[in-house]
Amino acid sequence: MKKGKKLYEGKAKIIYATTDKNLVIQYFKDDATAFNNQKKSIIEGKGVLNNRISEHILSNLSQIGIKNHLVKRLNMREQIIKLVEIIPIEFVVRNVATGSITKRLGIEDGTVLKEPLIEYCLKDDKLGDPLIAEEHIYAFDWATKKEIEKVKKMILRINDFMIGMFRGVGIKLIDFKLEFGRYKSNGKSEVILADEISPDTCRLWDSITDKKLDKDRFRKDLGDLIPAYTEVAKRLGILHEQSNVSAVNVTKLSSVKRKRK
Ligand code: UDP
Q1: Under CATH, domain 3-84+225-260 is a member of which superfamily?
Q2: Ligand 1 centroid distance, CA of 199 (Å)
Q3: Nearest-atom index, ligand 1, CA of 119
Q4: Got the DSSP string for 118-148?
Q5: CA separation for the pair 256, 261 (Å, rounded)
Q6: How far apart are CA 139 and CA 157, in angstroms?
């Protein structure tokens, strides 16, 4: 299978066509953006770590029956994924209140929610991804009721699985964002999990110290983003304990592993 032309370039990823019309290549960039693109930077090695972490989480989710777009990781920055039509909604899942919800509703930072909360945001950068009600989705035909019912069931299973996975390695899953898409094959359309799951799209706090191991290190200028993402990868068993935390070494490590295969 050959890499074709660029189909789409987003803030953190690029999608390329392949010779198979149902499959595309997802390339993880090092670009970091926040606050609706107002804050930008390039953090060397971030794409490599997100590619590995997202591969790990999505392949584990496949093993518990959560269908998703990942076919296989190709190299340190690229994965082959199923081409889907993205549902234009960002599904934000919260276990602990932090970030935008604390400001919007005056909730104390760190409040543990009685049950997981799903919020819907319209995927539209120009509008700043506004929060919407479930009813807006049906009023404007962004997805059907049947699709959203299925997505909600998948989200709760994904959340339970991920809480347990991270808890087992000393990390609290505070909140995260998911995207879903319609995969069309044999004349049928099926909703599957898409995009990425990584420290760019999750809030992850160390279970004991509450240290932030996610993109808040960039949003809040806390520094040491690569060591934090590397720590997540190491705890998940993706990178070995002795590997050095610098971006350069992460890059080297990935290529060494690839050559060995
Ligand atoms: N999130 C994301 N992409 C977005 C908005 C949010 O991945 O465009 C993730 C974010 O990393 C966090 C969760 O969704 O894990 C909830 O984010 P929140 O709405 O609190 O965003 P904030 O405005 O505080 O960044």
Answers
A1: Phosphorylase Kinase; domain 1 (3.30.200.20)
A2: 11
A3: 19
A4: EEEEE--GGGT--EE-HHHHHHTTSS-HHHH
A5: 9
A6: 27
Encoded tokens for 25: 């290549």
> Which residue intervals of the chain bear CATH 3.30.470.20?
87-206
- The tens digit of pLDDT for each residue in 32-86 reads 999 988 999 999 999 999 999 999 999 999 999 999 999 999 999 999 999 999 9
Ligand 1 neighbour 100 (Cβ under 6 A): yes
Question: Residue 196: which of 43, 45, 63, 86 has the closest Cα?
Answer: 86
Q: Where in the chain is the domain with CATH 3.30.200.20?
A: 3-84+225-260
Please tell me the distance from the alpha carbon of residue 158 to that of residue 61, in angstroms, as a whole number.
7
Comparing CA positions, the residue from 162, 156, 185 lying closest to residue 174 is: 162
For ligand 1, whether the C-beta of 116 sits within 6 Å is no
Whether 112 has a pLDDT exceeding 60, the answer reads: yes
Report the alpha-carbon distance of residue 255 to residue 249 in Å, rounded.
Answer: 10
Copy the structure tokens of residue 109: 């930072």
Is the pTM higher than 0.85? The answer reads yes
Q: Tokens at residue 55, please?
A: 């591969």
Measured from the CB, is residue 202 less than 6 Å from ligand 1? yes
Pick the CATH number of 87-206 from 3.40.50.2300, 2.170.150.40, 3.30.470.20, 3.30.420.40: 3.30.470.20
C-beta of 203 in contact with ligand 1 (< 6 A): yes
The number of the ligand 1 atom at minimal distance from the alpha carbon of 129 is 8
For 236, the token pair is: 């998940």
Residues facing residue 122 across a β-bridge: 89
The minimum-distance atom of ligand 1 relative to the CA of 203 is 15
